[in-house]
Amino acid sequence: MSSDTYLRKALVNLRENRVLSQSATAEERRHCVLRRGMIDWLVAEKPQDLRELYERLPERLWIETDMQQLEKYGEEILKLVQLYSPGGWGFRR
Questions:
Q1: Which residues contact residue 24 at a Cβ distance below 8 angstroms, ignoring those fewer than 6 apart?
Q2: How far apart are CA 11 and CA 51, in angstroms?
Q3: CA distance from start to end of the chain
Q4: Closest Cα to residue 50, out of 35, 64, 36, 33?
Q5: pLDDT digit string (tens) for 46-75?
């Protein structure tokens, strides 16, 4: 499996086990910091820090994101992105 696949799985795992409760509503899932569109963007763009994430995140994703979740889990999300980026110990081609 590629690093992108591992990163995607790690982000989904974080979403399902920490960010959202099992009783999350459809509305909460739509605005989750780790909804499908955000995960797709994180895997494709791999921002390396919060500054880069804030500067490069498309507005269409930004306006739909729960900012409290981003503040709470942003660093943890970026640690996973770094782990599976070139130079990270989880990186695989």
A1: 32
A2: 20
A3: 8
A4: 33
A5: 999 999 999 999 999 999 999 999 999 999
3-state secondary structure of 82: helix
Which DSSP letter does residue 1 get?
-
Give, as one character, the DSSP assignment of residue 77.
Answer: H
Q: How confident is the model at residue 89 (pLDDT cuts 50, 70, 90)?
A: low
Whether 78 has a pLDDT exceeding 90, the answer reads yes
Measure the CA–CA gap between 46 and 49, rounded to whole angstroms: 9
Radius of gyration of the chain (CA): 13
Identity of the residue numbered 51: R
